Amino acid sequence: xxxxxxxxxxxxxxxxxxxxxxxxxxxxxxxxxxxxxxxxxxxxxxxxxxxxxxxxxxxxxxxxxxxxxxxxxxxxxxxxxxxxxxxxxxxxxxxxxxxxxxxxxxxxxxxxxxxxxxxxxxxxxxxxxxxxxxxxxxxxxxxxxxxxxxxxxxxxxxxxxxxxxxxxxxxxxxxxxxxxxxxxxxxxxxxxxxxxxxxxxxxxxxxxxxxxxxxxxxxxxxxxxxxxxxxxxxxxxxxxxxxxxxxxxxxxxxxxxxxxxxxxxxxxxxxxxxxxxxxxxxxxxxxxxxxxxxxxxxxxxxxxxxxxxxxxxxxxxxxxxxxxxxxxxxxxxxxxxxxxxxxxxxxxxxxxxxxxxxxxxxxxxxxxxxxxxxxxxxxxxxxxxxxxxxxxxxxxxxxxxxxxxxxxxxxxxxxxxxxxxxxxxxxxxxxxxxxxxxxxxxxxxxxxxxxxxxxxxxxxxxxxxxx
Length: 467
Ligand SMILES: Cc1cc2nc3c(=O)[nH]c(=O)nc-3n(C[C@H](O)[C@H](O)[C@H](O)COP(=O)(O)OP(=O)(O)OC[C@H]3O[C@@H](n4cnc5c(N)ncnc54)[C@H](O)[C@@H]3O)c2cc1C
Known about the structure:
- The protein is α+β, with helices and mostly antiparallel strands.
- The protein has 5 domains: about 5-90, Uridine Diphospho-n-acetylenolpyruvylglucosamine Reductase, domain 2; about 100-215, Uridine Diphospho-n-acetylenolpyruvylglucosamine Reductase, domain 3; about 215-330, Alpha-Beta Plaits (2-Layer Sandwich), CATH 3.30.70; about 330-425, Alpha-Beta Plaits (2-Layer Sandwich), CATH 3.30.70; about 425-465, no CATH class.
- The protein has helices at about 5-15, 25, 50-60, 115-120, 140-145, 155, 190-195, 230-240, 255-265, 285-300, 310-320, 325, 345-360, 385-405, 425-430, 430-445, 460-465; strands spanning about 20, 40-45, 65-70, 85-90, 100, 105-110, 125, 165-170, 175-180, 205-210, 210-215, 215-225, 245-250, 275-280, 305, 335, 340, 365-370, 375-380.
- Helix 8 (about 230-240) packs antiparallel against helix 13.
- The longest helix is centred in the last third of the chain and has 20 residues, at about 385-405.
- It is globular and about 70 Å long.
- The two termini are about 25 Å apart.
- Flavin-adenine dinucleotide binds near residues 132 and 199.
- Flavin-adenine dinucleotide binds near residues 68, 71, 72, 150 and 198.
C-alpha cells in the first residue's frame, strides 16, 4: 500500500480530520524535548481502543511502525519517529475521568494532562501522587510510558506504585486488560511490565489509577545553605532520622539564579545550595517534625530556614522549582539534561563530582534534584551552534552517567532511556539481563513494529526482533 492509500485507509478508521499528513502538519511531531528530528509518514489521533486497535492491525498488515505519543515532553528521544511510520497521538483520548472515591481509584484515558486530573480531584479532597515537574503539559499515558516521578514521589513512590490496571492495544491490534481496581492480581504482573516500557510493548488506551486523600495539613520550608555539601548532607540526615517529607528538592546556585531571575520566588542569589522541604499529613505532630528538620539543618550549618506562611508563598516557591528547566534559558540557549539516580547517601559526593566533571570539560552545569530519592538532574548549558562545545557536553554527560553508576545508582531516575541512552544500557545491565529484555520485546512485538530502536541497545533490539 502506498502512502496515499495508507492515508485513505487510516482516515476511514479515525476520520479525515484526525489524520495529519502534510509536511506543515506533521512538523511538530518530528521531535520531542531532544534536539533530533525525524519525519513520520503520517500522524493520527484515535478516539478510543477500538480505533487504536484498527490502526495497529492496518499498520501490522502494511509493515508500518507505530510510535505512541503523549505530549512529547520526554527528554530521551522516546517519541522520535526514527523509522518514520505512524505517530499515534493520544490527545483525543481525553474522556472524563471515572472517579471512584470509595475505592480510591480513577479510570482515565491516556491523553489527559496530569495537572488536569489533579485539578479535578482537588475539590473532592483527593490527589494522584505522581507529580512530574512537567505536569502542566505531560499526559498520564506518557507518565505511564516513562514511569514518571516528581517531587512527591519520595514519600509516595513513582507512577508504577499508583497504576493498578491498564487497557493496552498490542502490536497485532489485540486489546488486553491487565489488573483492575483491586490490590492483588494473580499471574504475571503485566501492568508493572507495561509501566516504563516507553511505548515499545503496546499503546495504553485506559488506566486505573490509585487515588489518595489530600493531606490535612501541608508545611513548606525553604532551607538556605552556604555550601552544596551542607545542603545535600542535610538531605541524607533528615531521612536517616526517620523523617520522610512529602518532598525534598535541592537546587544549586546556578539553577537558583536562573529560577529567581525568572520567577521571583524569593530564593537568595548567593546561596550555594537550597532545599525545598515539604511535610504533609495530619496537623498533629507536624510542628514537632518541622522543628526536628530545622535542628538537622542547623547541624549542617544552615544559614536560614523560612516557612511559607500562606498558600500563595508556597505556590511561589513551587512555581520557581517547577520552572527550573525553562529558566536556564537565561544562562545559555540550550541545555542537555542528565537524569541519574544515586543512593541518597552518595548524593553530596555525586553533586560535588558533577561540578568537577563540568570543570574538566569546560562546560557550565547547574543541578536540580529530587534529592530525597537521589534523582539528580545536572543541566549542562551550551550553545548548539558551537560544535566543539557540543562535543564536550556529550563527553561530560557520559561521564556524569558513569559516575552515577559507579556510586551504585542507575542510568535514569525518571526521564527514560529512549534513543539517548539506549547504548548506555549495557553499562548498567549485563548480556543476560539485556537478552531477557529482548525476549520480552520479542514476545509482545515479534516484528519490531512498536516504537522501534528505543530502550534496548541496538544489537539487543535487533535480537529481540529476530532479524
Ligand atoms: C520541563 C520538563 C520537566 C520535566 N520534569 C519531569 C519530572 O519531574 N519527572 C519526570 O518523570 N519527568 C519529567 N520530565 C519528562 C517528561 O515530562 C515525562 O517523562 C512525561 O511523563 C512524558 O509525558 P508525555 O505526555 O510528554 O509523554 P511523551 O513524551 O509523549 O511519551 C513518553 C513515552 O511514553 C510513550 N507513550 C506515550 N503515550 C503512550 C501511551 N498511551 N501508551 C504507551 N506508551 C505511550 C511514548 O512512546 C514515549 O516512549 C520533564 C520534562 C520537561 C520538558
